[in-house]
Amino acid sequence: MPVAMAGGSSGGGRVLDCRSFWKAGSYEAPAAPTHGFQDALETGDFDRARVHPKFLHTNATSHKWAFGAIAELLDNAVDEISNGATFIRVDKTINSKDNSPMLLFQDDGGGMDPEGVRRCMSLGFSTKKSKTTIGQYGNGFKTSTMRLGADAIVFTCAIRGSNVTLSIGLLSYTFLRRTMKDDIVVPMLDFKIQDREIVPLVYGSQGDWDSSLKIILDWSPFSSKEELLQQFQDVGSHGTKVAVYNLWMNDDGLLELDFEDDDEDILLRDQGSASGGVTKGQKEIVQQHISHRLRFSLRAYTSILYLKKFDNFQIILRGKPVEQICITDELKFKKAVTYKPQVTHDSQVVSVRVDVGFAKEAPILGIFGMNVYHKNRLIMPFWKVFQEGSSRGRSVVGVLEANFIEPAHDKQDFERTPLFLRLEARLKQIIIDFWKEKCHLIGYQPTDPNLRSQYKATLKDSGGSASHVHHKNSSSRRTGGFSSNLLPETYDDVAAAGFPNNGSHLQSTGQAQQNNMDSEGLDEDLVEIGSSGIFDPNFMEKLSEENLALFSRREELRQRDTQLKQTIEDLERELEETKRKCGQLAAELKGIIMTEDTGPRPMLTKN
């Protein structure tokens, strides 16, 4: 027997009894009636493959992460930029039948005509064959909407030639479960603009159209045809609106998506615990870093979701545009490395640019990882090529666009092909070489013996006795005057840190490192960071305290800025109120003067 499914509130809302996504697929499907086979033969349905509703849920489990499902819907809007889209709006709205929250997506792209919306809501159909479009499997809409909630309704308006059409489609797991369907039924409604009026567009019979309308009104958040058509008012002449409702909950009975803690963001529950950082202050910095916030903050995740910044397109999250962040701009001591993968023997040469550098927070925090994009879309954020806790490549962050390999269906990973494994090995080598070449720029001893000698000489020349550095077995190490060069805002070359490179060994060493990066082999002769690889812990602690003080100061300035803006707004309101009162007083005074000029003058008496 299927899991019990209770009706919703008195407003007509209908929900599944089980609202946890990972448990919603655990039910026994009803057995097909004995006369079903004969009916199929008579109606001609026998030639059509049936897809059971359980497949909707099974298919959606490809998204382990709810934000990955949201990204799929954002991709659809980004693909519409070529059709004139200028925004995608993501917001919370309310289901009027039961007052439950819904997740809304709306764009102003080209929209879908009746044929297009049917392709969208069919399984495994895609017309996106462009080398630049992100979507390619024809499965994203179904998997993403069903991962976020049990039901979704689509409103889309399109102009094709002189024809303007409006279409509505309902993909409802609740409806299919409650009515015990053994096949996926997607009711659709179509309209057209004729003589400036919206009239039904019937492709089958009127009875089928009326039946679809009844199902949509019974199982959607809307109670009448007029309410349905009202949803097109803010869509305009072209665009698409998707409302996902009966959103999934966690095991505690709370919505998986948190709309309450931040009015300008959508958060994931139970994903915000910080890892990394020794002290409380360091953990606070980790919590503010994009590599941590993207796990639970949709605003943080979407800020780095696309590699290139849009010229005329915005992601508007809960009424506020998302500010795009270029990860490469957040690095210091940056370097570009060219990687040429061997795709196939007969294919043309592919050249991939890998930008690599140290995180701005280095060396205080060990934030590291490679950010791998595919066709402008982030697939693997802060991918830890080396295992967590490894000293190799500490604080090294990289960015690349790998269009030569194919992502997995959920676009959160790549297929583990030999090509991908070679990329992984190459990135390891790039990180190792970069670390060996530049680790001294963030306070670590150089790994190259010749560079180490020159490094110590430079410290001695720049800092005198205060910059004295002891040998490996010494119990204490000092850095003195060089500490001011450890955390610059941006540095792109070695010379910025005070090291000579005009014909010196440092320049030749850098050239040797670059040549070494062009090889495919892995150098396993690594330098582990331990007591012999890092400076005096007291110095690092002092540097950490200074960094925390700057972080606190920044927060204070932000709060002060907010207060000043509020004060300005208050003063402007007071000024307007004062002007209004002055105007009133001037009018009253003018009236008094006119009365005195026209009226009788009072007699003055002597006392």
UniProtKB/TrEMBL annotation:
Give the GO biological process terms: chromatin organization; DNA repair; positive regulation of defense response; regulatory ncRNA-mediated gene silencing
Entries under InterPro entries matching the protein: HATPase_C_sf, MORC_ATPase, Morc_S5
Q: Which residue stretches belong to region Disordered?
A: 462-484
Q: Which residues form a coiled coil?
A: 540-588
Q: Which GO terms describe its cellular component?
A: nucleus
Q: How does it assemble?
A: Homodimer.
What is the name listed in the Swiss-Prot or TrEMBL entry for this protein? Morc S5 domain-containing protein
Whose protein is this, by species? Answer: Urochloa decumbens
